[in-house]
Amino acid sequence: MADGSSDWTAGLKVAVAPRIGALDAADWDRLAASDAYPGHPFTRHTFLRILEDSGSVGRKAGWLPQHLTVRDAQGRLVGAAPMYLKSHSYGEYVFDQGWANAYERAGGEYYPKLQVSIPFTPVTGPRLMADPACPDPDGVRRLMVAALRAAAVDNKLSSVHVTFPTPEDRAALTGAGWLDRHGIQYHWENRGYRDFTDFLGAFSSRKRKAVRKERQAVADSGVEVLTLTGAELREEHWDAFFRLYNATSDRKWGWAYLTEDFFHRLGAEMADSVVLVMARDPARPDAKGRPAWVGGALNLMGDDTLYGRNWGSAGDYPFLHFEACYYRAIEFAIERGLKRVEAGAQGEHKVQRGYLPVTTHSAHYMVDPALRRAVADFVEREREGVAADIEALMAESPYRQGGGSGGGSE
């Protein structure tokens, strides 16, 4: 056919599901399964449903589910994308508020917009999910890209944004002319380390001593740090973690995206994918006389990757953030034989602790040609800056020559 579609894709039907619960979990998870991202916890039907059922995602939160679906002539789900109608730009971790402000000053309306992503989750993973067993998976992706563009045009929306897509998804998007934006995250790679001491052996002497000094300071403080997963997690831990998360969100951002119910549901339904690092201080008893919980770091685990997500704290405990978020994550990954730890964006301090910069991507379609030209110019200049920043950050690597790698692309 003239547009490159196969006869088979011409018979596919595109629709929108107003909630993830309207879609069969096994069908969704079949599409979400990926050899490149095995066991990815965030694209699972369960995780997305927990977000919706807990009220963390929904109309009131400004994330209205509009999940894109593609079915074949027999009604079988062969394509899907986690999609939301957004009334703001919070919780995306790819910041476009500057674009919105400029467009609105010029007389346009930036919101609402369409967002294809996992809410509050800056983690690369499948976005345009196509059944690998169908006759034309690439054709399904191309169809979804066209459907996203049509949805924006037909509904008079300003734009569509696909954040943290896989290379396959990015190829389908940029091949259709979407703008490719670059960002930076910090990841740790397991080079077959036997234990944490072996990992530190890859550092230069000065950087190795700095890490040991930080860890010793936490040990000398008397704070006890626990790494919990699966059946080890209890309601007590989630109650405490939400208090810590909420207090930290209030101090830093003024808005805690995730509800208390979200964390309890996560513990009830996905405990085996959760790695929760919790710190308690015997010198600060709680109302029941028990050591008070003073810090916590939430991670989710795939088959080969640990994903650092949320941190919360109460009080000033030097280096506890580094211990709970970075060092304990590395120890756990080594013990479990995981390939990497993704510590997310922001924080050049992560480099000195073994997490090196990598390039991340997002794809953007702007309906208004004038807005597209302005954003295209910005994205091009920003890419040059990202490349320069990664080069500078790599120069600060704590690894001895040949002891670590980074600067790659997700």
Plain-language structure description:
This protein has 410 residues and is an alpha+beta fold. The chain has 12 helices and 15 strands. The protein has helices at residues 7-10, 25-32, 45-53, 97-105, 137-154, 167-175, 196-200, 205-220, 235-252, 260-269, 320-336, 369-394, and strands spanning 13-17, 63-65, 67-71, 77-81, 83-86, 113-116, 129-130, 159-163, 179-189, 224-229, 274-285, 291-301, 305-313, 340-342, 356-366. It has an 11-stranded mixed β-sheet with strand order 2-5-6-8-15-9-14-13-12-11-10. A 4-stranded antiparallel β-sheet has the order 1-3-4-7, sandwiched between helices. The two termini are 33 Å apart. The mean pLDDT is 94.
Spatial strand order of the main sheet: 2-5-6-8-15-9-14-13-12-11-10
Give the proportion of residues in helices.
25-40%
Distance between the termini: 33 Å
| Overall form | globular
For the sheet with most strands, the description reads: 11 strands, mixed
**Number of extended strands:** 15
- Low-confidence runs of at least 5 consecutive residues: none
Q: Per DSSP, what share of the residues sits in E-state strands of 2 or more residues?
A: 15-25%
Structural class: alpha+beta
In terms of quaternary structure, the protein is single chain
Overall average pLDDT: 94
Task: Please give the count of helices.
Answer: 12
Radius of gyration: 22 Å
SSE arrangement, N to C: HEHHEEEEHEEHEHEHHEHHEEEHEEH
